[in-house]
Design brief:
450 residues, alpha/beta, VC0802-like, 2 domains, 14 helices, 37% helix, 23% strand, binds adenosine-5'-diphosphate, binds aspartyl phosphate, transferase
């Protein structure tokens, strides 16, 4: 059997729901479908999840949310009771007395919940046996933050024991319940995680992830014009590239797939006949190119510290990490030299007050000669299983950057040997990706198929 997940763009309109329903009906192996909330129909549109976030604070947008589902129900001439149910659920939530964070999580979860409810009604209206199943009924248990939940291992025992209904089971993505029965969502884009958990839990032969592009491209199509699609790649290549910013698949969703050794097939809802990208285990994988993909992420800050004989001082890194722990901060990378150390942090976890307090503490505890806070820091990741086999690769990667006068402030060859990380200024990040891309890949107008 296959677990199939459709992203928000694939469930944004009645026409898209029709495609989804045809894809589900085309292959009897597709027995579990995971839904996202309706996404953008056009560039300036607002995703239903974002409308729900607004609605948690201000009920004025509730009619806009209902209208999104009403348009889909109208397309299929569904019974009005489906929309009445959605309205009643929103009405109930608007009146609940819970903490602010719980109220927000409860609202955010409804986008995928209503999509699943509606898709079940659509499939049934077309004569297909379908059942709407809530994550709590499946035993999907999470812990941690209400907007960044982590799966509890008990989930897999629950899924193994679950008796799936006949026909297609429709499950909302993105949220689950805590042991106490409260709703918590994964981080944004987290419906991919639900799909991967179900694929592992049910021992699926394949996890199909349908989106609005033909597969994973070698670079972000918003940065490089018509980048080359990747036919096959490994889990760890996708994990590194997703972490780096390939928005097409959630980086945490790869972990259940790896644990269950479930191949992931990323496909286009609008062109399901195309093979898409297969993401497979490393064992037996033969790299055909030195580089599989290039990505840049610009949401980083760096703290540069200099003091002579820094490398000789025992416990210095421990003291630094204790400060981070004190402020509940995680760090991304820490390249160091004999007298210097750079600490790279994800900017999204920092506010101005924390930055000031952290700098003051570092000065007090570590007494560096130089402490420099670099705000506009970007990381370029060049990733490929084939990298290790190519000796002069670093030179080939750096040459086009030098030619473009792009300053590289840090080079870090990952311990995994399948990625190279470069630090640059944010303003140069897109140009750096384009320059490296041009060196390793054939431009679209020179490809054989063009
Ligand atoms: N390397 C890449 N390959 C393919 N798509 C990418 C890549 N990097 C970023 N994207 C973007 O990811 C988008 C699909 O992801 P997402 O918006 O989460 O879709 P969905 O709504 O289907 O979940 C694509 O439209 C594309 O713009
Ligand atoms: N709807 C949620 C979860 C999700 O996975 O969405 P999408 O599949 O459209 O990326 C979000 O917008 O974050």
């Amino acid at each position: 059997m296959r677990v199939v997940k459709f992203g928000g763009t694939s469930l944004s309109t009645g026409e898209q729901f029709e495609r989804v329903s045809q894809i589900m009906q085309a292959n009897p192996e597709r027995q579990v479908v995971v839904t996202s909330a309706p996404g953008k129909r056009f560039k300036q549109d607002i995703k239903v999840t974002d409308l729900l976030i607004q609605a948690a604070k201000n009920c004025d947008v509730l009619p806009d949310i209902v209208a999104r589902y009403q348009a889909i129900a109208n397309y299929f001439n569904l019974d009005q009771s489906v929309i009445d149910w959605i309205e009643s659920q929103l009405d109930q939530l608007s009146r609940e007395m819970v903490s602010r964070s719980q109220h927000l999580a409860n609202f955010k979860a409804q986008g995928e919940r209503f999509s699943a409810y509606l898709l079940t009604a659509v499939l049934k209206s077309q004569g297909t046996d379908a059942t709407f199943v809530e994550p709590a009924t499946l035993g999907l248990v999470v812990s941690g933050e209400s907007d960044d939940a982590q799966i509890d291992p008990v989930t897999y025992r629950n899924l193994a024991a679950f008796q799936r209904p006949r026909g297609i089971m429709v499950v909302p993505g993105f949220y689950a319940t805590t042991a106490a029965g409260d709703i918590a969502t994964f981080s944004r884009g987290g419906s991919d995680i639900t799909g991967a958990i179900l694929a592992k839990g049910f021992g699926a032969e394949r996890y199909e992830n349908f989106t609005d592009v033909d597969g994973v491209y070698a670079a972000d199509p918003r940065v490089v014009n018509q980048p080359q699609p990747i036919a096959t790649m490994t889990y760890r290549e996708l994990r590194e590239l997703s972490y780096g910013g390939f928005g097409v698949f959630h980086d945490e969703a790869i972990i259940p797939a790896i644990e269950g050794q479930i191949p992931i097939n990323l496909k286009n809802t609008n062109a399901p006949q195309l093979p898409g990208t297969m993401i497979v285990p490393e064992a037996g994988f033969e790299a055909r190119h030195a580089i599989t993909g290039i990505v840049s992420a610009d949401h980083f800050s760096a703290i540069y510290l200099h003091r002579y004989l820094l490398n000789k001082e025992t416990g210095l890194t421990l003291k630094l990490l204790e400060l981070l722990y004190h402020y509940h901060l995680s760090y991304e990378h820490m390249p160091s030299g004999i007298d210097d150390l750079t600490l790279i942090l994800d900017d999204t976890q920092l506010d101005a007050a924390t930055k000031t307090a952290l700098c003051a503490d570092i000065k007090r505890v570590l007494q560096p000669d130089v402490l420099e806070w670099i705000d506009d820091y970007a990381i370029i990741m060049v990733v490929g299983e084939g990298m290790a086999a190519h000796t002069s690769l670093i030179q080939t990667i750096l040459q086009p950057l030098a030619a473009e006068h792009i300053h590289v402030s840090m080079i870090n060859q990952g311990a995994s040997q399948i990625s190279l990380m470069l630090g640059t200024d944010q303003k140069d990040a897109a140009r750096a990706v384009q320059a490296i891309y041009r060196t390793f890949f054939i431009p679209v107008n020179q490809r054989l198929e063009a």
